[in-house]
Fold these 2 entries.
Entry 1:
Amino acid sequence: RGGRADREVPFAQPGSLTKVFAIASGKGGVGKSTVTVNLALAMVKRGLKVGIVDADIYGHSIPDMLGVGDIRPTQVEDMIMPVPIKGLKVISIGMLKPRKDQVVAWRGPMLDRALVQMLSDVYWGDLDALLLDLPPGTGDMAISLGQHLPNAEIVVVTTPQPAAADVAERAGTMASMMHQRVAGVIENMSYLQVPGGERMEIFGSGGAAKVAETLSGRFGYDVPMLGQIPLDQKLREGGDAGDPIVESDPDSESAKILQGVADQLS
Ligand code: ADP
């Protein structure tokens, strides 16, 4: 596909009405993609027009989580059409590869090109919100994002563990080095609700609160803790089945918490 390096990134233009959120984490497996799809669907429930850019080069799992794992985007003239699913418009870095199962060993410039392509060569139309699922950590993609979308706000996802929180904090600091604002911190896998009311803190506690407090102190503005999502079998099953919990079980505790986070952001 011919990328058009000369085309401007629409969401970075002054006066753009699209709120851009990049979902970041220090390490993989903390639930970043799960949070991204559910927040996006929660915003759709509020009537917003929402797009997702799955920029997680190592674990592009957004299409699978939405049940469109093998769909390829169509192309009209030199524009790529985002895949419409559950009221969302979705593009994944996996869709830019010739084959879905191909392993990507792209270096910085290729990643940069892929990001620009997903932003500028995709026919997004009017969006109220665009959510980007970033790769974990503070690598090339985070730098490219900072360069092309300095107006993106960063949402940090972490588990409660101190080790996870420390690396999550670095992801937040990276954002501020790129002059991006950190919108808040989400704690995932916070506790397991056992029948009878007790909450078991399988992964410890306090990780997100610590990240939020440290970043607030460092940046001089309030970085809120946006919510604590429990360890939840149904949340996991919804992701595996391509039917995220915000849609499949909107009255569940997890879905309500995710909806609450989405409402704070939008
Ligand atoms: P990341 O994007 O950070 O790598 P994923 O969103 O892919 O993480 O989640 C990793 C795995 O953990 C997935 O199988 C997902 O379904 C599961 N998972 C995420 N959040 C939860 C949760 N709160 N409770 C149970 N399983 C979860």
Entry 2:
Amino acid sequence: TTSILWFRRDLRLGDHPALAEAGRAADRVLALYVLDPRLLGPSGAPRRTFLYRCLRELNDQLDGRLLVLRGDPIDVVARVVREFGADSVHVSADAGPYGRERDALVEKAIDVDFVRTGSPYAITPGRVLKGDGTPFKVFTPFYRAWTEHGWRGPARTSASTVDWVDPSRMDGVAIPDDEDLGGMEIPAAGEDAARKAWREFRKVRAEYAEHRDRPDLPGTSRISPYLRWGCVHPRTLLADLGPDDEAYRRELAFRDFYADVLWHRPESARKNYDRKFDALPHDSGEKADELFEAWCAGKTGFPIVDAGMRQLLAEGWMHNRVRMIVASFLAKDLHLWWRRGATHFMRYLVDGDLASNQHGWQWTAGSGTDASPYFRVFNPITQGEKFDPNGDYVRRYVPELREVAGKRVHQPWKLDGGVPAGYPAPIVDHAEERLEALRRYDIVKGT
Ligand code: FAD
């Protein structure tokens, strides 16, 4: 007998519950990946390239026995089932709106069992509920209930857990080549690289709570691209944490929380979670487009904002504190709709994830679950001075400011010689735009 393990956001062999289940269900397992144009299109070159590299790593781990096909999974999976006479198809459950719908259609299109085992989360979205059976809308009580609910230990799986089918009787497609990233350096891909990132983080883990907000320090785990693609399961990480790692556990819970929100409210990927914010006026037109372009390019004249936007372009990743600062700047200083910024992020982030990104943006813009209140407007200067106290982060990504010593780098317009050559003057007046943001907030409050 043969079962199919259809890989999606679980590109690993360790701690893989669906792999264990596929092995229990049949004598042999066929490893399948489907390149789905509907998902690849909006992904952006950095994330696609990271995916292709993950697939190459996975294929190597499987001694070349990963069958890769391209097309609509509804047709492709059904064809593979027929071709190999498979008795079941196994997946890690997908919690996103597109994935859920696609899986329901695939399930209908095949006449064998479609088995969902586990998910990319510590606790499968939809399972942590309030006492009255309704979903949580606020993180802290979710976190309490999530902790009480608990999760299984890691599944013990590896390449040798099952007997892999040689897929060569079907013509697969080659894993696509890397795309041109124009000098961007994205993290190493695959399960080994994920393990390595975790080993590195263990060295600085004791300082995580203290350093996690400091973009100038290597204070966070940088594990997000690996969690995004399932090169590591969060339970593997949770099993390795101790009682002193509360701050880190909380962040992993945040990832579960946003997936849970998206599960219950799939439309919140596109619309304001808090529909009152539909009344908030946004700027558009030529001037707004110009400001948006300056933001995208990291040329706003606000050093911490520019450093963040350029880190995104240089690495396909941005530090969490700086994601909040640049998002606040787009929403509250430039008065643009959060989705414009979110779409730019999704084009460049290697860890770009619909649940964490759209809800991270909505949190900052004020329209999300227990969001930062709209009237709390981040000051990009004091944020810079507080979280990049020596200016090292800014100097790393903004070469025009490299000669400016210390934290003076956060206010280049105050330098004796004026703003250094090549660096823009601030594109807006923060104090004025803050007041404008508050005026607009009054409109929302009045609805
Ligand atoms: P660490 O601090 O080491 O945290 C460990 C893990 O916990 C992360 O890898 C991540 O999986 C999870 N986590 C941490 N903070 C958050 C958070 N605020 N929300 C959800 N999960 C979190 N994260 C993404 O994975 N993909 C995104 O597309 C994404 N977009 C974001 C957009 C905005 C506007 C904001 C404010 C945040 C966004 N985040 C996103 C959350 C967060 O910025 C990243 O997860 C984090 O920076 C990844 O770095 P790390 O692995 O070093 O984090």
